[in-house]
Amino acid sequence: MRKRMYQIKKTEGRAKRAELVTVHGTIQTPVFMNVGTAAAVKGAVSTMDLKEIGTQVELSNTYHLHVRPGDDVIRQLGGLHKFMVWDRPILTDSGGFQVFSLAGLRKIKEEGVYFQSHVDGRKIFMGPEESMQIQSNLASTIAMAFDECPSSRATREYVQASVDRTTRWLARCKAEMARLNSLPDTINRQQLLFGINQGAVYEDIRIAHADAISEMDLDGYAVGGLAVGETHEEMYHILDEVVPHLPQNKPTYLMGVGTPANILEAVERGVDFFDCVYPSRNGRHGHVYTAHGKLNLFNEKYKLDERPIEEGCGCPACRHYSRAYIRHLLKAKEMLGMRLCVLHNLYFYNHLMEEIRDALDEGRFSEYKAEKLAGFEKMT
Prior knowledge:
Blueprint: E1 5-12, E2 15-22, E3 25-29, E4 31-35, H1 47-52, E5 58-61, H2 62-67, H3 71-76, H4 80-84, E6 90-93, H5 96-101, E7 106-108, E8 113-116, E9 123-126, H6 128-138, E10 142-144, H7 156-181, E11 192-197, H8 203-214, E12 220-223, H9 232-242, E13 252-254, H10 260-268, E14 273-275, H11 278-284, E15 287-290, E16 293-296, H12 316-320, H13 323-331, H14 335-361, H15 365-376
Parallel strand pairs: 4-5, 4-14, 5-6, 6-10, 10-11, 11-12, 12-13, 13-14
Antiparallel strand pairs: 1-2, 2-3, 7-8, 8-9, 15-16
Helix pairs in contact: 6-7, 7-8, 8-9, 10-15, 11-14, 13-14, 14-15
Cofactor: Zn(2+)
Binding site for Zn(2+): 313, 315, 318, 344
Family: Belongs to the queuine tRNA-ribosyltransferase family.
């Protein structure tokens, strides 16, 4: 019997302060996972950098690594941790989101999804078993179940049929994961499996699906298919309705979310795990986060600004460089400018989560949340 342990240390309303013990270390939650889709964070950020800025979990994508360099290659090289030189937890997304994002390049059938590679056009088939096999080859800490992420604007009929198929796929994922973890040559035989709740903005479909997958006794549960077109209010409403129907003694993961404000709102609603490309994507375009809101360092007003991006910030950019210098690098298209902005943004997110954990530990999360949200509206 493998050891797994998710322990809630503190609660405040629905908000949870917990830890998840894994084979690659203990994850303190709430946590923001830094997104390295193809086994690297875009913006020339190394795994040594990730440690320096306080990253607990790195997230990579099953579909992208299957396409290039190939999960068979990564397996031969000892798994994803060894390949990218990272000894902390890794979560791999299942490839299910690509069912949504590559809509023009795929066909969905009961057995799985037929893709055309976005790299070279070759035909790819991925179903629940294939996704589990790829993620087992990658040997990530946490594998995500293979699902379809329907559009938030899809019809009720389409969403219901899609969710029913996702439930059937989840049962297949669980069976295949158990088989793979029993094999003697599997790199990580303690790989965890998280299921994914879907249902677009139909709360009754979401709740029924949450109830169904909760009975499968998985290692954790995600809420997927949000932040894909619906309003923030719709997203918060779905979380209010759905999270209470997921097991409270298991981690809850809100996929692909979001802004700092989104994270604070979702923590209040009981979410433990987050990921989003915003900090790295915005950083590559010179948009940086501060406690007072977001700055665009391309703006002329920073041309002679000798202050760091944020006073008192401990990130590598703020410890050494001025807004004026980073703006110059961005304008000159020097990669260092992009790199420094990405490092700052990821540090900001990681540090935000640390502050959230401290506030929960000290029983003052609601006050902290109100202060942070008020602060984000003030620009410098």
